[in-house]
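User: What would this chain look like folded?
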Amino acid sequence: MEIAPTALVLIGLLLAAWTVGAAWLMIRAGNRTREAGKSRSAARRMARMLDEAPAIALLVRADSRIEGSDRLARWFGLDRLPDFLGELAPGDDRGLSDDQLAELTENVRRTQKTATPFRMALTVPGSQRSLALRGQLADPQVSPGGAALVWVFDFSESETELSRMRSETARAKGDFAALVGLIEAAPIPMWFRGTNGKLRLVNSAYVDAVGAESADAVVEDQIELVEAVEGQSAVSVALDAAKRNEAVKRTVQATIHGARRALRVSDLPLGEEGIAGYAVDVEEMEERGRAHRAYARAQRSMMDRLSIGVAQFDSDRRLAFANQPFRRTFALSSGAEPIGSSFKRFLSDARDAGRLPEVRDFPAWRAEHEEWFAASEPQEEAWPLVDGTHLRVVAQPMPDGGLALIAEDRTEQLALSATRDTLLRTRTAMVDSLFEALAVFAPDGHLQLWNRSFPTTWGIAPDRLDDHPTADRLLEQIGRGLVRPRQAESIGEVIRSATLDRKERAGRVQMADGRTLEFAGVPLPDGNGLLTTLDVTANEQAETALRERAEALEQADQVKTRFLANMSYEFRTPLTSIGGFAELLESGVAGDMSEQAREYVTAIIDSVARLTEQVENVLDLSQSEAGLLPVSKQSVELQPLVARTVRQREEAITKAGLRLDLLGGARVRVEADPRQLARAIGHLLDNAIAASSHGDRIAIEIGREKGATRISISDRGAGMDEAQLRRAQEGLAPTDEGRMERREGLGIPLSRQLIEAQGGTLQIRSKKGSGTIAEISLT
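Assistant: Here's the prediction, encoded as C-alpha cells.
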C-alpha cells in the first residue's frame, strides 16, 4: 500500500513535533529536578542555620504538643525534646522547675487564646544557663489551628555580664557616694573643674575657706581660693595642667579666715572629664621647716665654734657639712668645694694631706671604714698621725643612712696626761722627801695617802698603814705614843673638821719621847682632808730663845727712845747757851774786844750754828729710823716754800758764782710738813751747791705729772759714779768695831727719810762728769 507523500509529510511533521515535545518535556523535567535539588539544599542550609542560630523555635500546638530541635532539649537539660509541653518538667532534677513550667504554660495559653505576645526569662535548674523566651501566635502558614511560636534565646553570657555590670554599677554608685561623702567631709579644700576651667563642684572645707554661704554660691560666683601669682590665675594653672596632662603642684599663699596661710595646691587632670584639685594647709609644716632650717643654721654655727671637729655625710655617703675645726684637722679648704665629695674621696684626700694614720693596705682599710655607714652602733678609733697628732675619731651612724663623724684632737690632752703622770710621780717623790709628815684622809675616814715621814713622826710601824686603816684605828696606835693618850681625840677632831666640816684646825701634842708635834687639818679641793704634822721641838726651843731676845730688844728700844729724848735736850741746851754767850760777847756786853777776840767769837758762833745743824740732822735721822719723827701735815704752796729755801742759801750761791733757775710751781699745793719738807729740799740744794763749779747752773723745776707733784733739783757738777752714789745714800754706817762713821754726809739719807715721812719718794740719778738729778715725788 502506497502512502501518499502528503501523508508522509504529515507523519514526518507529527514525528518531529513529537520529538520536539519529548525533548521539551525532558528539558523541563531536568530543570525541575535541578530546582528540587536546590530547594532541598536550601532547606538543609536553612535547617542548619536554624540549628546554629542564637535563638531556637519551639512550636506549641493547641493540644500542647511541642515541636523543636534536640539542641533546645539540651538547653532545657533534657536528653531529647518531649512530645508535650507538660513533660518539660520531668521532676528528676532535670528540665524546668514546676514554677517555671507553670509560668510558661500560662503564658503560652494566654498567647494562643488572645494572641498576646509574652516575654520571660528563666535559669535552668542545676546549670548556669539563662534563657530568654519570646512567645507569639504562630502564622497559619507555619501551623494552622492557633499554635504558639516561642523563640528561646541563650543569654547566659549576657546575663553574667549584665550581673557583673549591675554589681559593678552598684559598687560604683556606692563608691561614688562614699567618695562624695569623703570629699565633703575632708578637712582640706577640694574642688572639681570642667574642661573649660570653671568650678563645678566644691566641698564644705572650700566653702568655709573662702567664706561663702554655700557650695552653689561658690560655683555660681566662681569664687577662687587662690589668687593669681605672678600673673597666673588658678584657672590658667589648671588648664595648663590639663593641656600637658600632668599634675601640677605648687606652694602659694592664701588668705583664710583673715590670716595668710601657706597652701600646697595640686591640680590633677582627669582626661575628658575635667580637672580636680585640692589644697593642703602647710603653714605649720613651712613654719617647722623654717624653724628646722634656722635650727640647722644655728646648730652648724654652734658646731663651727666647737673645738671638736664634726662632719655629716648624707645617705649617699657624700659630705653634707663640716665645721671649721674638722676642716682644719683634715686640711680641707674653707670654701664649698669639699661639700658633696664622697666618703672615699674624703679619705683619699685626707691621706694625701697626711691626716690619716699610716696603713699597709689603704684600699682595704678604706673599704672597712665605709662599713661604718651600715653599723648598728657607734664606732670609735684612735688615729695617730705622722706629725705627732693624736685624733679620737667617733663614727655615729644616722637613722637616714648617713654618718656623723667626730674628730677630737687629743694631742694636748695626751701631753697633759703625760705631764700629769710626771707631776704625780714628782709630787709623790717630793712629798716623800719632805721633812713634814703628811697624810690624806677620805670623807669616810680611811687613810688614802701618806709619805714616809708620817709613820716615823707618829711612832707607827709603816706596815700598819698598808691596809689603809680608818682614822679611829690609826688614832688608837698614835695614842700609845702620847704623854696624854686622850689628846688623840683632838687629832680626830681636826681630821673630821677637814674632811666633813671643810674647815682648817690645828693643834699641838707632846710625845712620850719628849718631842713636840704640831699638826693641822686642811680641806682639799677633791673632798679629802690633809693632816700635816711637823716636829717643832727645836722650833719651840728657838721660840723660847727668840721670845727672851724680843723682850730684851723691846727694853733696848725703850732705852733708845729715852736716850733720843734726853739727847735732844742735852745737845740743844749747851749749844744754845754757848751760842747765846758768844752773841753777848760779840755785842759788847763784856766790854770792848780786840779784833782777834772778835774773830774768835765769830768763829765760835759759826761753829755753834754748824754743830747745831748737824745735831738736828743726827737727831732727825735717828728719830726717823726709830719711827719717832714728828710730822705735822698741812696744805703747803710749793713755790713760796722753795723760794724761801733758796733765799736762805743766797749768800752761798752768790759766793760760789752759781746761777739758779726756779721753774713752774705756780699755785701747786701739797699736803706735807713745811718744816721737814723745806729741810729735805735744803739738804739736796746744799749738795747741788757743793758739787757745782763757778759759773755752773742749778735748776729747780716744780710740776704735776700723772696725779703726783714732782720737784726736780739738777746740777751740772762733777757727779758721782755708782759706788759713790751708793755710799752717799748710806750716810752713817757701822764699822767693824761697832762705831758709826760718816761715809758721804747725812744730806741725802736725811732728805730721803724726811720725804718718805711725808708719804713721798726720792730718786737720785747721777753720772760721773755730767751732774746729778734729785727728783722728789709727792702724792
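The chain has 22 helices and 29 strands. If you want, I can go into more detail on any region.
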